[in-house]
Amino acid sequence: MSEAADVELELDDIQRGVLSPRPTPYAAAYLAFRIDDRAQGRELMRRSAAAVTSVTDPVSPLGETWVSVAVTCSGLAALGVPDSSLDTFAWEFRQGMAARATALGDEGASAPENWETPLGSPDVHVVIAAVAPDPLHLQEAVDRARPAYDRLPGVTAIWRQDCYALPTEKEHFGYLDGVSHPAVEGSGIAGSNQLEIPLKAGEFVLGYPDELGGTRTPQPPVLGRNGSYAVFRKLHQKVAEFRRYLKDNATDPADEELIAAKIMGRWRSGAPLALAPQSDDPRLGADPHRRNTFLYERDDPAGFTTPGGCHIRRANPRDASVAGEVRLHRMIRRGAVYGPPLPDGVMEDDGADRGLMFAFIGAHLGRQFEFVQSEWMNDSVFFGAGSAKDPVTGSQDGVTGFTIPRRPLRRRLAALPQFVVTRGGEYCFLPSLSALRWLGDLHD
């Protein structure tokens, strides 16, 4: 679809990490900081404005190396942003992710009391993310950010997570990652689904009209405009348990791959069932212009090809009318692998921590991330599947199985264990470059 031109984004003021897909392959680092001294926290913001790259300001020759700076609500308070301003931010952001655990399904092993310290605590004030095509360029990106926090004794580094692309460029369960990216009106960045009309800029960047025609901007405008909300989540993957589940429910290795595809909605190469229903097609999976260009309602309303309850159909039902107005719940999603891979064929857990750092970016925490998490991933009212939850990331009860629609008889798999455990996360605000400078110039 051609991109509409009725909005002009101030791309030179928007952080590059908001709209640009991460490079492939990639290396990344997330660093969290606590502000112990307000004046030095403001100095961190001033320095960050020089380190952060905008959408129009590439650092590497390929334009694929950049630094992003995000601030939590407690971080804005630590910087001295007045309550009258904080009250204009999304109420979910003001509460914080830990306080929203029940709505998000973060219970049991995923409950905040089991999260990795200091994630979810009031101590996390600033999150700096560096992304690059490889470890060498990542170090350059970190070096670019280092002057922003170095030699500031009132700013304390409290957490770091390094991420990288596996040699296969897949995540730990074996699926190609980073396949889907929405088109944003006015960004100049193409979406991955050529059948999707670009979404209004206000769905992702604050201060612009959204799909409902409204404009949401935290106050004052210099702080809110051109910013976005970011959701960071560290998700531990139980790889050995996932492999055992596939093997225990399959009749042979080929059937294992079919079950894996039905659970995800894609073959592990990235080829979607919608376009490769009978067998994997690695050439299709490797083609970024073809592998995401399909719909559900038009071609497969009953889910006989792509099950309605599979992961990618829940996360983005595309043209499915049963899921309501899908365009109101679209997000920019990015995943980055952490931890060592479990060797091929190993069926027992080795005790290593491995998984994904997920980032979700949008302008509406409630009707985007929280809605998708609670209504599409951890409920099945929209999909007519009873108490079933997302088979990959859902907060499973160990009782409900997975059903594959099939003629003449549907296929029922055994009860699903929980394959993904939340290790922590934060709701953050990604200020514009001018907002970073404004935060740096605050006075009590």
From TrEMBL:
Residue stretches making up the DyP dimeric alpha+beta barrel domain: 28-142
Any one GO molecular function term: peroxidase activity
Keywords noted in UniProt: Iron, Metal-binding, Oxidoreductase, Peroxidase
Cofactor field: heme b
Pfam families in the record: DyP_N
PROSITE patterns: DYP_PEROXIDASE
PANTHER family: BLR4509 PROTEIN, DEFERROCHELATASE/PEROXIDASE
Name of the featured protein: Dyp-type peroxidase
